């Protein structure tokens, strides 16, 4: 079994942070099925306060747009209002919500995973894991993490054509501090056929750091989408059977 605790990160549950942070990140996928494979790539993520969106210099705005229509809830609403509505519908109150995501860049957006960290009095009370697949579908998992940022949910959304439906996700979403650490393990019975991790180091979202990220990872969301599709082709060429895609793979979001 793959361990999620090889590099433990102490959760930072404080809410007193800068307006926005950029995490220079590494995303790693590990498959332990009949054809074992590890896939890794670098990228960058933003951590923003949904009620205090970053104000960028005009030349940079096309490369970092944070739109409600790219995330959960009412496309005509706001990031903050939509997240708070989901929390309210489930009896949860938060006084601050931070969003870990990739922004819309040069008109394109694709986020395999975004995380809304929901805090009250500086303590994490919930997390919303928003998952997108490459078929245009979206699903949200409402988590109530323990002190280590862990919770479990039933898998109920089609993401990869090489993994079956069913099973449970063990998600670990501690509030980021100087370091970011998110992990998702799919468990089916006694086996863990898939583990994804997102780790990175944070820097303030200054103009210099934004420009550096754009130069190192140009068109970052388009690159992420292309890399995931290329890995799918490679898995198919290695003979991994394709799982049937359900009719609602592009359906609307739901929360558990």
Automatic annotation (TrEMBL):
It holds the Pfam family DUF1365. PANTHER family: OS07G0153300 PROTEIN. It comes from Nakamurella panacisegetis. This is DUF1365 domain-containing protein.
